[in-house]
Amino acid sequence: MRFWDSSALIPLLIHQPASKQTDAWLAGDGQLAIWTLSEVEITSALWRLVREGRLDESAAREAEARGVQLVAASYTVVDVAAVKTLAQRVLRTHPLRAADALQLAAALVWAGGQPHLRMLHTLDERLPAARGSRFRRSNRLVKGAIVRTVDSFYTVNASSAPAIA
What we know:
4-stranded parallel beta sheet, 7 helices, globular
């Protein structure tokens, strides 16, 4: 099981330049751990793309529905109090936005004090600097990876999902 920042979830739901990378990560381990507010971040990202004219509304609705299935099939960190406390500590030492600090704190809670044994998938350039070398790296692309479904959370892999402009 690996922790997925919401930035790494979006390319699973719509075709983006990083979709091959995230598909490979998913193929490497189809068990996802996520933060309880990841679904809100997915909605935000998809509809921001709609407002920017880079994704049409029907594609956003379809991707959002796949996101709901993905969330339902994932292990979700729901301990808001613990995550909030850790996020506040992270923000005192790292230049992150609140949502990013919450994602990182949720990953740390999930790691149970042993992040060096766990993997965090993120496409957000701010998180690796803040996480340092605590989590195992996940930036290696697996050549020729085939996307598996996670409890059939989505039946369309990112390469055939709606593309963004």
